[in-house]
Amino acid sequence: MGKGVALFPAAPVFPRNRDVEHPYRQDSDFFYLTGFDEPEAWLVLDARGDAPRSILFLRPKDETREIWDGKRLGVEAAPAALGVDEARPVESFEEALPDFLEDAKALYFGFGKHRAYDALVLDAIEVVRGRARKKVEPPRAVVDTDAILHEHRLRKSEEELEIMRRAGRITGEAHLAAMRAAEPGRFEYELEAEINRIFRMRGAERPAYETIVGSGPNATILHHRRNDRRMEDGDLVLIDAGCELEYYASDVTRTFPVNGKFSPAQRAVYETVLRAQEAAIAATRPGVTLDDVHRAAVEVLVDGLLEMGLLEGERAEILEKGAYSKFYMHRTSHFLGMDVHDVGAYHVEKKPRPLEPGMVITIEPGLYVGENADVDPAFRGIGVRIEDDVVVTPDGCENLTAHIPKSVSEIEAAVRG
Ligand code: GLY
Ligand code: MN
Ligand code: MN
Questions:
Q1: What's the pLDDT band for 34 if we cut at 50, 70, 90?
Q2: How far apart are CA 241 and CA 132, in angstroms?
Q3: In this structure, are 144 and 161 located in the same domain?
Q4: Which of 134, 151, 168 is a domain's end point?
Q5: Is 330 marked active-site?
């Protein structure tokens, strides 16, 4: 940090309605650095002197507040519990901040996320400018912490991967339970409840994103969230759901026939997506880019679309012009970690970034045939996505969610219970 100072705020509390707040979820960067999940806190990394120090500002113990809002770690316990060098009450942060900025060669801070925090930091810089007579200088450079920290978060340690494997196992149990619970006549939200029930029963804090249960034509809506349709005999059901465990996300999609038997058209689409997913997983290894992984999936999807008669024309031209995009309109992969669409640069020097061991990505091809598409009516309203989470290893990749039913026979058996 070259004699600089870094500042990391805890996530703010967001009001929901009147005096109700959204459930609190710590900022991922702040949690990555501290392991501390309380609101109203700041982490300062002070590298100005010869011995760099970490100082955590946090809410002090308060008997009355704790009766209403729950236990607090408190200032005294924080250094031993969290490994910071020093802890102070958060009420003193604003006043102390200019002192930390005095003669800092650079300020490391993620401006542009929360206006109130930006203002607080800018005000402190202003205060230091006013101290010129003290012969101190404000920071002469500002560095975005994202660029540095997110490179660390992008590459997962073995400890992080072990949490992600456990998150994958809980997510698998939830998908299996939903497949078993599915029946024509039940509502999408009943499966959502089943998924989220298993997450909590197994100790995951929350879903990593809102659970998507799309049946029939809803399977073709990428971010369907109402989950309020009654499932009908003959529907496919697409469930995109993953738990968040100890602040790490899983992100898994399975698609299955609600009555336990794929129709011929459903099966043809499903097997195409499955082959595409397998091809993309097989292509994932160090040195390849997410464009390469996407391309591996798209080539198989296009072959399938031609075979099924959903597309006509020259394979090469379809690939070149992207005519498949009316059935496959999203990308195949994103980074996965503490955030479901995780941090980390997808491009380095404007070029797609080669994958490295320790990076975790999703592999999630799909095909979505609109209800009104100009195709054989047997295919209309079919939506299929298959999504797994893989970590890049030195010689390929490890599928963290491989145990969740995926072949036609595994899926049909699971739905029939
Ligand atoms: N569930 C969000 C995604 O698959 O990217
Ligand atoms: Mn997903
Ligand atoms: Mn995903």
A1: very high
A2: 56
A3: no
A4: 151
A5: yes
